[in-house]
Amino acid sequence: MVRPKSKIKLNLHLKLQINAYMKKFIGIFMGCLIFLGCNTQEPTKFSEEALNDTFMTLNGESIAFKDLLQNHKGSNVVIDIWASWCKDCVGGMPKVKKLQKEHQDVTYIFLSLDKNVEAWKKGIEKYDVKGEHYFMSSGWKGPFGSFVNLDWIPRYMVVDKEGHIKLYKAVEADDTNIKDVL
């Protein structure tokens, strides 16, 4: 049996159209699957590794992150991860100072990623940074930096009175999410 050319063209055109729609559908379906399948929930508790990471105090002593939190149990804490060489960190300091003025009952902990202790201490003085200061000896990829998935500074976090993470990530000190959880 011989098919007329017009029917062959129609079938070919229909198959191409169906093929195009199927590719779009599969693309959209896969995108949704990836988006919905990824765990986008932010942690509310610190990992054991992050809690056991140690930082250096201004007088050269080591302190575990869990001890920092324990020292401030019963107080809301804003954590500011910064460095004196970071243009965005230094540029954001007026916003941090405004936040401190508006929320004086909050403890402010500054974790530095400066290249060395001398630069860290000079930066605190130069930019008149008020709060508790610690040097992140383990750096960006240490246990604490890895837990918070540190990819940019400045980075702000808020920890509540019981030591739970209320805000996992903000990159501006005037982020409304910070004020909402304080």
Give the gist of this structure:
It is built from eight helices and seven strands; from the N terminus they run ααββαβααβαβαββα. It has 182 residues and is α/β, with parallel strands linked by helices. It is elongated, with a radius of gyration of 26 Å.
Protein architecture, described:
By secondary structure, the protein is α/β, with parallel strands linked by helices. 45% of the residues lie in helices and 18% in strands. The chain has helices spanning 5-37, 48-52, 65-71, 87-91, 93-102, 117-126, 143-147, 176-181; strands at residues 54-56, 62-64, 77-82, 107-112, 132-135, 155-159, 165-170. The chain folds into 2 domains: 1-40; 48-181, Glutaredoxin (3-Layer(aba) Sandwich).
List keywords for this structure.
182 residues; elongated; 18% strand; Glutaredoxin; 7 strands
Unreliable residue runs: none
Strand order of the largest sheet: 5-4-3-6-7
Question: What's the alpha carbon Rg, rounded to whole Å?
Answer: 26 Å
The run of helices and strands is HHEEHEHHEHEHEEH
The count of domains is 2
What is the CATH first-level class name of the largest domain? Alpha Beta
What's the SSE blueprint?
Blueprint: H1 5-37, H2 48-52, E1 54-56, E2 62-64, H3 65-71, E3 77-82, H4 87-91, H5 93-102, E4 107-112, H6 117-126, E5 132-135, H7 143-147, E6 155-159, E7 165-170, H8 176-181
Parallel strand pairs: 3-4, 4-5
Antiparallel strand pairs: 1-2, 3-6, 6-7
